[in-house]
Automatic annotation (TrEMBL):
<keyword id="KW-0675">Receptor</keyword>
<dbReference type="InterPro" id="IPR050125">
    <property type="entry name" value="GPCR_opsins"/>
</dbReference>
<dbReference type="GO" id="GO:0007601">
    <property type="term" value="P:visual perception"/>
</dbReference>
<keyword id="KW-0472">Membrane</keyword>
<keyword id="KW-0812">Transmembrane</keyword>
<feature type="transmembrane region" description="Helical">
    <location>
        <begin position="199"/>
        <end position="223"/>
    </location>
</feature>
<keyword id="KW-0807">Transducer</keyword>
<protein>
    <recommendedName>
        <fullName>G-protein coupled receptors family 1 profile domain-containing protein</fullName>
    </recommendedName>
</protein>
<keyword id="KW-0844">Vision</keyword>
<feature type="transmembrane region" description="Helical">
    <location>
        <begin position="283"/>
        <end position="304"/>
    </location>
</feature>
<feature type="transmembrane region" description="Helical">
    <location>
        <begin position="158"/>
        <end position="179"/>
    </location>
</feature>
<dbReference type="GO" id="GO:0016020">
    <property type="term" value="C:membrane"/>
</dbReference>
<keyword id="KW-0716">Sensory transduction</keyword>
<feature type="transmembrane region" description="Helical">
    <location>
        <begin position="244"/>
        <end position="271"/>
    </location>
</feature>
<keyword id="KW-0297">G-protein coupled receptor</keyword>
<keyword id="KW-0325">Glycoprotein</keyword>
<keyword id="KW-1133">Transmembrane helix</keyword>
Length: 325
């Protein structure tokens, strides 16, 4: 029948098109020679496991916050923005191959790279502002000032602002989005341009990573210090949650560090006019450790956070002051 003949003709055409696109993609990828086909398969299988695990744990954590009285606590609600974005970035639909989003590889990489960069920066900024919130609360309690509720809206506005600032430059010709180590997704190009643009790109990399880590560490240091100095009831009530934020910050910085350092070395060597090619197994483990961060965050909070632990086990909140809106 005619429709059977049509299927038999179109199927090989579709397979040939996919083979051609994958071959063309590998030719464009600067890192295609790092992995063999077997290494790339191991990396993808590992990412499927780690990201699925992270997504499942993150879903449980977010439900324990959003479907209980914890959602009325402004501090937990601020934390929820971080846990939600970490969950969404690990869900299967968020990991569709970029080549499926557009028939043109360059346009697809720009689209995929922008959203990948925007969401990854937003994730880091959300945790940064969770740490900042801990210092602000401690500072206001120490000075006996009333807490300002619109600060929590401002935190998210700043997260979106920084995410845009660090992700839009390639859209205006400053840097570009190119294929990542996996050759499956796109990121800010780590091979610097031969122009003054490279100084801006290096600045963006430094601000995206070291600036955020510096703010996390400093804000939590001062929050803990104020908590040790001021022994009022309100400050003591905030201490457990500040400790929880400190633990998950350490966990996430440790998980983010390997892949951040690898990309940093590539950018640094490129800035010096040289080349740094990491080995396949180093990249594999860096990606796996990075992608397991949400699961590690969830497990840490389930074990150490009084409010979340009692919600899961006893279905009630810990005795913390609730700020209802």
């Amino acid at each position: 029948m005619w429709w059977i003949r049509k299927q038999s003709v179109n199927k090989p055409d579709e397979v040939d098109r996919c083979i051609y696109e994958n071959k063309h993609k590998m030719e464009l990828c600067a890192w295609s020679e790092i992995f063999t086909d077997e290494d790339r398969g191991i990396l993808r299988d590992g990412l499927i496991f780690t990201e699925t695990t992270s997504a499942l744990f993150s879903v449980c954590l977010n439900l324990s916050i959003l479907l209980t009285n914890l959602k009325y606590d402004l501090s937990y609600r601020n934390l929820a923005f971080f846990t939600i974005i970490t969950c969404l970035r690990r869900l299967p639909f968020a990991k569709l191959a970029y080549s499926e989003s557009s028939p043109d590889i360059n346009d697809s990489c720009t689209f995929n790279g922008f959203w990948n960069t925007f969401l990854s920066v937003y994730e880091v900024e959300c945790l940064t502002h969770v740490c900042i919130e801990r210092y602000v609360v401690a500072k206001y309690i120490n000075n006996e000032w009333p807490l300002i509720r619109w600060h929590y809206t401002m935190y998210q506005g700043l997260c979106v602002l920084f995410a845009l600032l660090y992700s839009v430059p390639p859209l205006f010709g400053i840097g570009s989005y190119e294929l990542d180590f996996t050759c499956d997704s796109c990121v800010f190009d780590m091979v610097l341009p031969n122009s003054w643009h490279k100084y801006i790109v290096v600045s963006i990399y430094l601000l995206r990573s070291f600036k955020s880590a510096f703010f996390m560490i400093v804000m939590l240091y001062w929050a803990r210090k104020l908590g040790l100095i001021n022994k009022t009831k309100k400050m003591i009530e905030q201490a457990p949650f500040t400790k929880s934020v400190l633990i998950i910050t350490i966990v996430n910085l440790l998980c983010w560090c390997p892949i951040t350092m690898i990309r940093g070395f590539v950018v640094f060597y490129s800035f010096l006019g040289s080349e740094f090619i990491p080995s396949a197994w180093v990249i594999q483990w860096a990606f796996w450790i990075n992608s397991i961060a949400p699961a590690a965050t969830s497990l840490s909070l389930f074990m150490i956070d009084e409010g979340i632990r009692q919600t899961v086990i006893q279905y009630k909140m810990a005795p913390r002051e609730k700020k209802k809106i």
